[in-house]
Amino acid sequence: MRLVVVSAGLSVPSSTRLLGDRLAAVAAKEAAAPSPAPAAVQVVELRDLAVEIAHNFTNGFPGPALADAFGAVVRADGLIVVTPVFSASYSGLFKSFFDALSVHDEDALAGKPVLIAATGGTARHSLVLDHALRPLFAHLKAVVVPTGVYAASEDWGAAGLDRRIERAAGELAALLRGVSAPGSAAAGQASTLVPFEERLSALGQSPRPGKSPRAVS
């Protein structure tokens, strides 16, 4: 199982990266349960890809490091995405990476479990999870876990942050455990379609004149 953290932190050390690492540690352990070995975790640091992201927009081609990052995200079973808050929203670097990814492969995140998280200097920005991050990843067709995690400066070391991390990471792990591997019997099983007129016959009814029968699942 592969878990990828996309961190848009700019400083070293970065509270954004720290939050991503803490979420990944819990999710990787729970996703692999009952095995004692945690799931594999890879971190994509957008700070290191800033130049290649900019070049990608001007020449239309990802550089080697950016192409590797795209590949890691596409192959991942689940994502943890973390951004600092700038001007009450995600950072430009964060948005640019996912814009470039969607141009490269518009279905890269389709159906992929994603945990959203953000860091900021004040709790007033906590709504960024729901007014910015959640709509973005819904647009990219990802499956966003119910609980997002926002960490303000005063949250570090507080029990409340630990509880949110455990809850959100647990939700991501539950989604990862429920994902059927490509080619598995569950993934390859076709839905059984029952013609609409047969459903009506079972109810002692018949299709109305002028209405074409439909197949329903």
Automatic annotation (TrEMBL):
Flavoprotein in keyword set: yes
Residue span(s) of domain NADPH-dependent FMN reductase-like: 1-156
Keyword Oxidoreductase attached: yes
Alphabetical UniProt keywords: Flavoprotein, FMN, Oxidoreductase
A Gene Ontology molecular function term of the record: oxidoreductase activity
UniProt-listed Gene3D superfamilies: 3.40.50.360
Any matching Pfam family: FMN_red
Protein name: Oxidoreductase
Organism: Streptomyces longispororuber
